[in-house]
Amino acid sequence: MSINLMNDIKPISYIKTNAADMMKYISDHKNPIIITQNGEAKAALIDIESYQEMQDAFSLLKIIRLSERDIENGSYKSADVVMNNIKRKYKIND
């Protein structure tokens, strides 16, 4: 997904006038539209799939960050300990 300067940057007045076309464009091309106001970039309009993917990626990064913090604090168990606990809990024999 790369920005096409001709098509992907629009003033807010254009977005207001052509909202349905802009929605179709982002759905078809999966490119965000950068919305400008008074010549400055102010917002981005993106399709819902891209938004969900971005939210999922942020959630995964947060989990990784929390995991790294746990490791730094020594708050973790080895894979062997975890697997043994699971086997005991569910009565799984090797």
Structural notes for this entry:
By secondary structure, this protein is α+β, with helices and mostly antiparallel strands. The chain has two domains: 9-46; 49-89, no CATH class. It is built from four helices and three strands; from the N terminus they run E-H-H-E-E-H-H. The chain has a three-stranded mixed sheet. A hairpin with a 2-residue loop joins strand 2 (33-37) and strand 3. The longest helix has 25 residues, at 48-72. The protein is elongated and about 65 Å long. The chain starts with 8 loop residues before the first strand and ends in a 5-residue tail after the last helix. The mean pLDDT is 93.
How is this fold's topology laid out?
Layout: E1 9-11, H1 12-17, H2 19-29, E2 33-37, E3 40-45, H3 48-72, H4 79-89
Parallel strand pairs: 1-2
Antiparallel strand pairs: 2-3
Multimeric state of these chains? single chain
Count of individual helical segments: 4
Structural classification? alpha+beta
Distance between the termini: 48 Å
Largest sheet: 3 strands, mixed
